[in-house]
Amino acid sequence: MANWQAIEQLNDIAADLPRFTQALTELAARLDLDIAPLDADHISLRCHQNTTAERWRAGLEQCGTLLSENIINDRPICLFKLDEPVCVAHWQFSVVELPWPGEKRYPHEGWEHVEIVLPGDIATLNARALDLMSDAGLRQTGISVKTSSPKGERERLPNPTLAVTDGKVTIKFHPWSIEDIVASELAD
Description:
- By secondary structure, the protein is of the alpha+beta class.
- It has a single domain (about 5-185), classed as 2,3-Dihydroxybiphenyl 1,2-Dioxygenase, domain 1 (Roll).
- It is built from five helices and eight strands.
- The protein has helices spanning about 10-30, 50-60, 125-130, 135-140, 180-185; strands at about 40-45, 65-70, 75-90, 90-100, 110-115, 145-150, 160-165, 170-175.
- A hairpin with a 2-residue loop joins strand 3 (about 75-90) and strand 4 (about 90-100).
- The longest helix is centred in the first third of the chain and has 20 residues, at about 10-30.
């Protein structure tokens, strides 16, 4: 299979990667978050139109394998395992999350967030994630923190999320890897 950056349907997200990498690095610096030791297991896109999501899906199908297709928060979300990773900072992401547009309008179409895995007690996820960032960083104008518990129709693992954003990019924290979540969908 081809490298994702060589697929015509993905030219816009290939061109968007330097912007995302810089914005993510800047957000981490604002938060005093040292991303170097953290395990981020996948990267996610955002788009405004179904036609864009369908074009990206067609492109991702040429350079990866569909791991999962699920309805989460009333919209389809596909996960693809790529043959060649998406490189951001020190991370190499082999899994890409592709959600179809939902109610929320994002300021930019392209790469939007990374998801960091913090294994451990789900009850302490928020505290453990917040401890990685400075209080001063979290109190800055334009920084928002949100908690949620997205759940696919067949998921069996609770998947709380803490998301920190500056409105341009987001860093999310979960207790499980996305591949553990997908495996829970397949369990009997």
